[in-house]
Amino acid sequence: MGIMVSGSEEQSKLQERISADLRERSRSNSKVEGEDVDLVEDSEYLKNTTKTGRFSWFWFVLIVLAALALVIIFVIK
């Protein structure tokens, strides 16, 4: 969409029309009236996932130790 607008009054009217159109589209696309726009947290992809537990630091330590072991192996060789 390419519309050239000169003047701040015309631009503000155009912006108001565009935002009103987007709001209307958002309302018509929602399943239930008053429902928020579908966000990432609402997606089916994340439905059965869990957040990282309190022992996630353990994996970080293992990765650092593995990297350190690789460095030592290649430096000694």
Characterise the protein shown here.
The chain is mainly α and 77 residues long. It has two helices and no strands. It has helices at 8-29, 56-76. The chain starts with 7 loop residues before the first helix and ends with a helix.
Summarize the structure.
This protein is mostly helical. It has helices at 8-29, 56-76.
Tell me the helix content: 55-70%
Low-confidence regions: none
Task: Provide the structure class.
Answer: mainly alpha
Rounded Rg: 26 Å
Q: H/E element string?
A: HH
Name the beta content range: under 5%
N→C terminal distance? 61 Å
Q: Please describe the biggest sheet, giving its number of strands, its sense, and whether it closes into a barrel.
A: none
Overall pLDDT confidence: 78
* DSSP strand tally: 0
Instruction: Count up the helices.
Output: 2
Global morphology = elongated
Write the layout of secondary structure elements.
Layout: H1 8-29, H2 56-76
Question: Which short descriptors sum up this protein?
Answer:
77 residues, 56% helix, 2 helices, mainly alpha
